[in-house]
Specification:
The protein is α/β, with parallel strands linked by helices and 314 residues long. The chain is built from 9 helices and 14 strands. Helix 5 (164-173) crosses helix 9.
């Protein structure tokens, strides 16, 4: 769990006054862990601290809140009627554009919860540890201060194609934490009118020229409307370098592509780094079904990193 400053800024820009409600401490059995957070504004909310009566009540209180910060404790069984037998301490903070202007993208976000005062030594040590060794702290409440690491992307994904499958895949993957998505197609008109927060949308008449701008650690999913463009992207990515790559299609399509890529000078080991087909055919051919299968493979790739010679999308 981490403090999603970019997401908070986007919500404030869209809705104005936004409350961020975060689990600050837990005791016993609870539906979510410390650091789980939701954003609440008049008429809506995003994220989750576990659902149920707790989330409903704290969202209601957040909309009525007037103090900049509010720390409260809730016994989930007696107070909320939830089957979890534990308790949570919850921090609710109000943010507007003015407050966000004062915040910087520091790796560790630490602030006094109730009374302003000198930063406790325990908090100072956590910040110093990050600066010296790059070790980020776990979210926690320490001596009246809430400490959270700033959300940073741990995986970079480029999705090529804004057709039905590309759209479905973005909707599935966009809410995931630690993921930075760049979405590319040939025309802005091919993208939906509204895209999820945090998605970088790029339109280019010749998308292949954008391959050179992709980080070497990026993962790629190729889902364009054109087999010719798919092949060009595979060729360009093999020349540029990547962490993982997957291509939508059939075994027949991939056999043809593998021959073409070999003719273009790529070795068999390099060609095998691109996974095709991707997804789980048994789920069905509906775009959302394909997207769920591809997303499951993508998530599984994180635990398989470095254990396979070929792409983890396979």
């Amino acid at each position: 769990m981490a403090f999603d400053l970019a997401g908070l800024r986007a919500a404030v820009a869209r809705h104005g006054r936004v409350s961020r409600v975060v689990i600050a401490a837990t005791q016993g059995s609870t539906p979510r862990e410390v650091g789980a957070a939701m954003l609440v504004w008049e008429g809506g909310q995003s994220g989750s601290i576990g659902g149920g009566a707790l989330e409903f009540e704290l969202a209601r209180l957040a909309r009525r809140q007037t103090a900049p910060r509010r720390l409260s404790r809730h016994a989930l069984g007696p107070e909320m009627g939830q089957c979890c037998g534990g308790a949570v301490e919850v921090l609710s903070e109000i943010y507007t554009a003015a407050e966000l202007e004062l915040m910087t993208d520091q790796p560790v976000i630490a602030r006094a919860v109730e009374k302003a005062g000198a930063m406790p030594l325990a908090v100072s040590r956590l910040i110093a540890l990050e600066r010296a060794q790059g070790i980020l702290p776990e979210p926690r409440l320490i001596q009246g201060w809430m400490v959270e690491p700033l959300k940073r992307p741990t995986r970079v994904l480029w999705i090529w194609g804004a057709g039905h499958v590309g759209r479905a895949l973005v909707q599935v993957l966009a809410p995931l934490p630690g993921l930075e998505i760049t979405w590319i197609d040939t025309d802005m008109a091919r993208f939906p009118k509204e895209t999820p927060d945090g998605i970088s949308v790029l339109a280019a008449h010749d998308p292949v020229r954008l391959v050179g701008h992709a980080p070497q650690r990026a993962e790629h999913l190729i889902l364009t409307y054109s087999h010719a463009l798919d092949l060009e992207l595979c060729h360009a990515l093999l020349g540029h370098g990547f962490a993982d790559a997957g291509l939508i299609g059939s075994a027949t399509k991939w056999a043809r592509f593998a021959r073409r890529l070999a003719d273009l000078g790529h070795g068999a080991d390099q060609i095998a780094r691109i996974a095709c087909p991707i997804g789980t055919p048994g789920l069905g051919k509906h775009p959302q079904m394909i997207a769920i299968g591809v997303a499951a493979q993508f998530l599984g790739a994180a635990s398989n990193a470095g254990t396979k010679a070929r792409s983890s999308f396979a």
